[in-house]
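Workshop exercise sheet. Pairs work together: one partner reads the sequence aloud, the other fills in the structure field after running the prediction. Swap roles for the next sheet.
Pair: D.N. / O.F.
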Amino acid sequence: MLYLMVAPAARGLFARAISQSGASIYAPLTHRTESRYGRPSAEQTSAALGGDIRVLRALPAAELLQRAATRWDVMYSESGNEYWPVVDGTALPDEPATLFDAGRFYRVPLIVGTNTDEATLFATFLEPLPLAKSPPDWKKYLARQSLGAESLVQSTYAVATAEEIVPAGIRWVNDWYFHGSARAVARAVS
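Structure field:
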């Protein structure tokens, strides 16, 4: 719903909105033509898949997902392709965070929320997290994911043992992807 609020083509299609679990609205997205945040552009990813949209459309979904290396656990990984929208300059003119913070969204009454431990769904099969097997690995991962706020994030989600990484990862994803996005959107629209 929140992506529709910043999509110009969706203006006028709804009179009010409810967003539950609006994850990653304030997280960086892949861009169509530019490499950003250490990620390839959507066009580069497409070219790596084969580039011919007719051929890609003819593939069975399972094969396309395998080729694309799409992951369901992207919140806990640094590899594979995410399943979030792509900033293309038209349907999604810019990062949603930028659009909300600049007041460039469709102003309708909004109910926004999230669940307390939503990240546990995404961590169900992750014992331990694939990105960090030790406290030093976890600290390095958090630094890469929170440029400019490394010290604060590392101290907030610090661990002393490998067994603490999964619970800390769940807290971090709850706060960053879910709770933080809901609060930021609520501030922007109020």
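Discussion prompt: The chain has one domain: 2-189. What would you look at next?
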